[in-house]
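Input (structure):
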């Protein structure tokens, strides 16, 4: 019986590994469709995209979002070649490395028999990621007489990253006289120009355009991410009490979102109480105080897609006079922004609607940031100055920051543009003051834990 049980467990373990190897992003059709559209927009270009190598740490492997968007592949040392002239797609994978997989986990290799079935790639080539001999040979053959090659000159983005921070980091590093490194994409471009005497064409603008309007598969992932984040913040509201460390609230929200189906944080959450909430930065772990507001900016990630929402509530369960005045102004601004979000509008129109309310109420001087941005593969997706169309997803989050009285208020929702206007994806968490105060009187996880401790 023991041997039978052990054999059964071994079979389960093997099946789990095999299943994990065959996981493929949002599905074959989605990623094939992304590649097909890119080639259709790319004229007769030859394009190259490199996935990330294994990290030097023992952490969980994360794939570059651009490479994942086109392939769905979560495995290291992969390369994608797209020949828009012939429509040919070539996937290059490393040779099998059983010893490496034993230490670092399963990885795709060129001999895996199921790759075509789950990805749609008919041309899978083995390539040594250290020498890239096979890759160089293919590039030389496919280029032919062409003198250009397409590369996405975009920073490496993994889970929790956004382009605005990545660009700023890489700009500082490249200008550092004791460092000076270019980002990974620009280094690839320089090497291609050196070895193949070609001109590199940036295809990142095409990809940004493609990412703007979400497909049904992307909307399903974003909806699930928003649902998980809502459940996490809802539980945080119920469990907030004076004296609670913000680290406990963070841990509770992480547990709640994972139980709700999220893969994890879309970014490191911001949990700020009192004066800290007026500074637009992450506060160190501190105990929440009665009579203060707590501002929580939180997002869940599901299948690489990120939610990003913010709620503000009173630590002791009741809004004071000044808190209520600022809160009502921000909520009115948010409602105006949502009403302005419709096909044909732009980000500036939504921000203008939010700002008009704050001006009317005399609080414009306490505004510290733009009120909206795009959401998708990144918590803050690249901005494109063009009118909205159905399928665009944005986050709307006006805020007021009264440093004199130590009050910071921000309320942020994720919405998808529809034919008729905007549909809120993060509406499962209360925003009205009366509803928040009522929710905070519900029993939360920390109430149950406290009773167990007693």
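Output (sequence):
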């Amino acid at each position: 019986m023991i041997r039978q049980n052990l054999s059964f467990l071994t079979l389960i373990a093997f099946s789990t590994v095999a299943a994990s190897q065959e996981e493929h992003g949002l599905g074959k059709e989605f990623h094939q469709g992304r590649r097909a559209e890119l080639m259709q927009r790319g004229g007769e270009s030859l394009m190259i995209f490199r996935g990330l190598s294994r990290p030097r740490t023992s952490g969980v492997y994360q794939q570059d979002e651009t490479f994942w968007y086109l392939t769905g592949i979560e495995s290291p040392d992969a390369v994608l070649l797209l020949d828009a002239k012939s429509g040919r797609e070539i996937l290059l994978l490393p040779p099998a490395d059983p010893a490496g997989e034993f230490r670092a986990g399963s990885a795709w290799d060129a001999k895996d028999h199921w790759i075509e079935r789950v990805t749609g790639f008919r041309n899978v080539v083995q390539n040594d990621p250290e020498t890239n001999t096979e890759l160089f040979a293919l590039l030389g053959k496919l280029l032919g007489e062409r003198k250009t090659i397409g590369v996405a000159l975009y920073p490496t983005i993994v889970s929790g990253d956004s382009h605005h921070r990545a660009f700023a980091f890489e700009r500082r590093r490249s200008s550092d006289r004791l460092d000076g490194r270019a980002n990974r994409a620009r280094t690839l471009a320089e090497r291609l120009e050196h070895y193949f005497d070609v001109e590199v064409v940036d295809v990142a603008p095409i990809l940004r355009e493609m990412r703007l309007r979400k497909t049904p598969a992307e909307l399903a992932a974003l909806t699930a991410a928003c649902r998980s984040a809502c459940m996490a913040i809802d539980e945080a509201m119920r469990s907030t009490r004076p004296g609670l460390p913000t680290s406990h609230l963070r841990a509770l929200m992480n547990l709640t979102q994972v139980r709700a189906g999220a893969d994890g944080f879309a970014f490191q959450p911001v949990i700020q109480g009192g004066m800290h909430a007026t500074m637009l930065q992450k506060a160190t772990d501190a105990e929440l105080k009665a009579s203060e507001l707590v501002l929580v900016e939180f997002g869940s990630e599901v299948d690489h897609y990120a939610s990003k929402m913010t709620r503000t509530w009173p630590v002791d369960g009741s809004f004071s006079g000044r808190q209520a005045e600022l809160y009502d102004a921000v909520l009115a601004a948010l409602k105006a922004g949502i009403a302005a979000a419709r096909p044909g509008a732009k980000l500036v129109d939504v921000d203008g609607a939010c700002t008009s309310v704050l001006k009317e109420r005399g609080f414009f001087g306490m505004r510290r940031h733009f009120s909206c941005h795009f959401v998708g593969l990144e918590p803050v997706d690249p901005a494109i100055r063009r009118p909205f169309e159905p399928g665009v997803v944005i986050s709307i989050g006006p805020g007021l920051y009264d440093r004199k009285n130590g009050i910071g208020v921000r309320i942020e929702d994720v919405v998808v543009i529809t034919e008729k206007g905007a549909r809120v994806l993060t509406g499962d968490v209360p925003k009205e003051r009366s509803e928040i105060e009522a929710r905070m009187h519900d029993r939360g996880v920390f109430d149950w834990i406290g009773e167990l401790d007693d």
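Notes: The chain has two domains: 24-211, 216-453. The first strand starts at residue 46 and ends at 50.
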